[in-house]
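step=encode ok
step=design start
structure_in=
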């Protein structure tokens, strides 16, 4: 698949099953993340991979965070099952580095680009993925349970696997609705 087709046909794939990327394919996906725009090459991110029993451990951490932050019962009940929707979840963390030139915001953008690069690389390799967000991204208790520092920020949960069913074609986008010229 050529690069433009990949970019223009990108779709999130919420229905994922085994197998997840592994070996050389997983290495390629992670290497794609290391190639995103990164002024001063600070590498302001960390990738926490959960698969197998790690998915269950991540679910326990989500449930504990939901309870500690007084989430409604339906969210607490659903929390431990959330990571089980895919055979692999990569928690992408923005980990700002000290810099006089590159603001923490710019560094967070770099981490966000890493999520997109990994999702695109996975799709190019025939896998499916979906970038999930929601309350866990901002729950400081979960951050602490993951061993993150006060300045660190989860920027997404990248669910990866083999598509259980192919997503439909992307909807037409009206470019003109999102463009303004000066």
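sequence_out=
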């Amino acid at each position: 698949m050529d690069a433009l087709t990949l970019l223009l046909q990108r779709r999130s794939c919420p229905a994922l099953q085994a197998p997840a990327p592994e070996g050389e394919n997983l290495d390629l996906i992670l290497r794609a993340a290391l190639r995103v725009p990164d002024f001063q090459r600070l590498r302001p991110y960390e990738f926490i991979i959960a698969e197998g029993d790690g998915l269950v451990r991540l679910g326990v951490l989500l449930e504990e965070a939901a309870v500690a932050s007084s989430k409604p019962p339906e969210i607490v009940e659903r929390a431990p099952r959330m990571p089980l929707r895919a055979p692999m979840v990569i928690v992408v963390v923005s980990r700002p580095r000290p810099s006089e030139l590159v603001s923490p915001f710019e560094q967070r953008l770099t981490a966000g680009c890493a999520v997109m690069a990994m999702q695109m690389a996975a799709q190019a390799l025939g896998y499916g993925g979906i970038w999930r967000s929601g309350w866990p991204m901002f729950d400081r208790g979960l951050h602490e349970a993951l061993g993150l520092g006060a300045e660190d920020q989860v920027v997404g949960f990248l669910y990866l696997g083999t598509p259980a069913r192919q997503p439909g074609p992307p909807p037409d986008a009206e470019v003109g609705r999102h463009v303004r010229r000066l």
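step=design ok
step=annotate ok -> The helical segments are 3-9, 23-33, 53-68, 73-78, 104-124, 140-145.
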